[in-house]
């Protein structure tokens, strides 16, 4: 009995898919094309230097002591190394958004919507 080469190839491919589907999940690689995602410390994605730059800028803008400015959350922008840090400023009813790079250089401090 001779097996058709097409059927043989289909059987091998099907077996390969079955083995791949049943394999245990693997952890993603630490880097993808040289990019390493930032480490998250204390619930924040932005580096400490960035948050400190935003606290300083908001403190100067709203003329309050640095102790009265608290970061509440942050997001990484589409461009690597830039963050939007949301701050709570004492005496302000709305939160404040601060655009900053990873070196702590602040671009803008605006009232959050």
End-to-end distance: 75 Å
Radius of gyration (Å): 25 Å
Stretches with pLDDT under 50, minimum 5 residues = none
Q: Figure out the total of helices.
A: 2
Global geometry: rod-shaped
Instruction: Give the SSE string.
Output: HHEEEE
Record keyword descriptors for this entry.
113 residues; alpha+beta; four-stranded antiparallel beta sheet; 2 helices
Structural description of this entry:
The protein has helices at residues 5-22, 48-62; strands spanning 69-76, 82-89, 96-101, 106-111. With 113 residues, it is α+β, with helices and mostly antiparallel strands. It has a domain at 48-111. Strands 1-2-3-4 form a four-stranded antiparallel β-sheet, with helices on one face. The termini are far apart. The model has no long low-confidence stretch (mean pLDDT 80).
Protein topology:
Blueprint: H1 5-22, H2 48-62, E1 69-76, E2 82-89, E3 96-101, E4 106-111
Antiparallel strand pairs: 1-2, 2-3, 3-4
Outline:
The protein has 113 residues and is an alpha+beta fold.
């Amino acid at each position: 009995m001779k097996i058709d080469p097409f059927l043989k190839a289909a059987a091998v491919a099907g077996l390969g898919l079955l083995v791949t589907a049943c394999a245990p999940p693997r952890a993603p690689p630490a880097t993808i094309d040289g990019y390493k995602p930032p480490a998250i410390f204390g619930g924040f994605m932005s580096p400490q230097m960035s948050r400190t730059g935003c606290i300083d800028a908001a403190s100067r803008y709203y003329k309050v002591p640095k102790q009265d400015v608290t970061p509440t959350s942050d997001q990484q922008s589409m461009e690597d190394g830039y963050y939007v840090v949301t701050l709570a400023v004492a005496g302000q009813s709305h939160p404040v958004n601060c655009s900053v790079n990873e070196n702590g250089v602040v671009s803008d401090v605006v009232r959050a919507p």
